Amino acid sequence: MASIRTYALIYVALMVLATGKFVFFHYPEIFSYQVAIGGTMILAAIKVSLIAGYFQHLKHEPRSITYLMLTAAFMVFLLTLAAGYSIQ
User: What is the membrane topology noted in the UniProt record heading this document (predicted)?
Assistant: First the structure.
């Protein structure tokens, strides 16, 4: 199990990444809308990996569990795409 220091550092990193998302959309003269969306998606992926890896303890699980979670996330992504396509 990770130490309190590790969890505190992860929490600070999550706060910095959330602030980064705010910066993308708060300064439209610097970042275009497409860059802000792309940056937000990248920051969200980093945040998800930190949360899943440390707070849900997937970092210390066997690789088969990690691959199972990645497959499930990919299927959710496909389902989201299909739902978006059917709405249009």
Answer: Multi-pass membrane protein
Return d(Cα 44, Cα 56) in angstroms, integer. Answer: 16
Reduced to 3 states, what is the DSSP secondary structure of residue 56?
coil
Q: Where are the domains of the chain?
A: 1-56, 62-88
pLDDT tens digit sequence for 25-61: 898 899 998 999 899 999 999 998 888 888 877 778 8
Distance CA 23, CA 75 (A): 31
> Is residue 62 helix, strand or coil?
coil
**Torsional class of 27: left (φ above 0), alpha (ψ -120 to 50), beta (otherwise):** beta
What is the Cα–Cα distance from 37 to 43, expressed in whole angstroms?
A: 10
Residue 83 carries which DSSP code? H
